UniProtKB/TrEMBL annotation, chains A, B:
It comes from Flavobacterium agricola. Keywords: Coiled coil, Oxidoreductase. GO terms for molecular function: prephenate dehydrogenase (NAD+) activity. This is Prephenate dehydrogenase. It comes from the Bacteria.
Length: 282, 282
């Protein structure tokens, strides 16, 4: 590709840009971001070659990448498709997929769009958090691929492949349902744990001196960006509420066993959950 | 010290033995473990120099370290104190402190015992999981230090210092109350999250293909040893139930905001919890 535009120069967009540079897949990368500070940082860090306004950037690009919060992406995507050149493709990287697919469902240029979700990230945000290796050995999901042109899907596949990212495909609805459990729910549990301990700390100073690596690992996602996660929680509300309710039942089950000192049942329960080790290692 | 006995040759005891060897603090380390396989492994890995029965090991030691599940430690500690030589000290390393302090409260040799809890560990267990650096830059808590002889406390302090572990002191009750929030609760949330996703997986195959590093970090503690954690949950029941209830309220608060699509409130909530970043980095 000659020219690629990245909209949103944070952790995800910035890392994708650095990855494209490393693999030599893009000759020139244009950055678009409403935050002037992020634009300056992205230039200074060599993440992008130049900064442009949205429309002129899109008009001269072979590929446009949306790496902004999902609520913003749903506003910008239909606008881009309105004037997108015939052979230019646009992909998003958001954490929910049904919403964005719905807003362009009947757009005449729907086939120029590829809905994707790379399961990659850290708890950090902004251009300074970006690094080329973010997508290495991760999984990316392409949703509703049949609604995109074959050329567009092949291009996106080739890019992910070059970034060493494994691609799987599914419907937008299946994606949102499953991701509620293996990503969105763990953000909820981390935020709730973080807030629980922060509130206790008001009365019990220095409690964090006692926090070890276990707590740190469990609460890590509570550092995540509110701008990114607020719209995700709301958009995937229906699936997420189901996941939270299922989770609540497990918390209640453990609570009850502990309250009644059911040693054997607790042991049995923990042993069963240990099976997560096998599954994560596979 | 000439001779040290380690009772329990798993992750904690094994790592402590390796640390003592590395710092040259112990000339000889005797291992005691009811699991013959662990004894063989500990010998083969150079964690201990010999394996002995409990009593003869204690009788020839300068220091005895209890690194077994807390329910077992509470049975063994009073027995050891019954025949412990005058100048031999015993320390435990369990995750709850009120229980073990209570069982030896009136023992005539109480002063030979130092109650400690190193906030260090991984999700792995057994001698093969042990490594000398486990305690490096971690925090260890000595509880009810005034009930131990000064000589005993100074010895334990010196050892932790040599392992590069920072020591803080507090009462056994305060320890158990605080640790419920910053350690035991995060094990509950991890186990519940693990079980939630394992149950969903029964119907939705391949859901774990979509799990990223965020899920893995949040669920890591669900790999922890049931033998170690069952008695911890039960012994710290009272504090832990309070912590679970506080946590439940946070989950419910998030659930409600999500159900009502309260974007501003969610954003505000997540931003507040981001403060955990400042606290963990301090």
């Amino acid at each position: 590709m000659k020219t690629v535009t990245i909209i949103g120069l944070g952790l995800i967009g910035g890392s994708f840009a650095l990855g494209l540079k490393r693999t030599g897949l893009a000759e020139k990368i244009i950055g678009v971001d409403t935050n002037p500070e992020h634009c300056q940082e992205a230039l200074a860090l060599g993440i992008v070659d130049e900064i442009k306004e949205l429309k002129p950037a899109v008009l001269q690009s072979d590929l446009v990448i949306l790496a902004i919060p999902i609520n913003a992406a749903q506003v910008v995507l239909p606008q881009i498709l309105d004037y997108i050149p015939l052979e230019t493709y646009v992909m998003d990287m958001g954490s929910t997929k049904a919403g964005i697919c719905a807003v362009v469902k009947n757009h005449p240029n729907r086939k120029n769009f590829v809905a994707t979700h790379p399961i990659a990230g850290t708890e950090n945000s902004g251009p300074k958090a970006a690094f080329a290796e973010l997508f290495l050995n991760k999984v990316s999901i392409i949703c509703d691929a049949h609604l995109s042109s074959e050329k567009a899907v092949n291009l996106v596949r080739k890019i992910y492949q070059n970034l060493w990212t494994n691609v799987i495909t599914m419907s937008a609805e299946a994606h949102d349902e499953h991701i509620a459990y293996v990503s969105h729910l763990s953000h909820i549990t981390s935020f709730a744990l973080g807030q629980t301990v922060l509130e206790i700390e008001k009365d019990e100073k220095n409690i964090f001196d006692m926090a070890g690596s276990g707590f740190e690992s469990t609460v890590r996602l509570a550092k995540s960006s509110p701008a990114m996660w607020t719209p995700i929680f709301i958009q995937n509300r229906e699936n997420l509420l189901k996941a939270i309710d299922t989770y609540e039942k497990q918390i209640q089950k453990m609570r009850e066993m502990i309250e009644n000192s059911e040693a054997e049942n607790i042991y049995e329960y923990l042993s069963q959950v240990n099976d997560i080790r096998r599954i994560l290692n596979k």
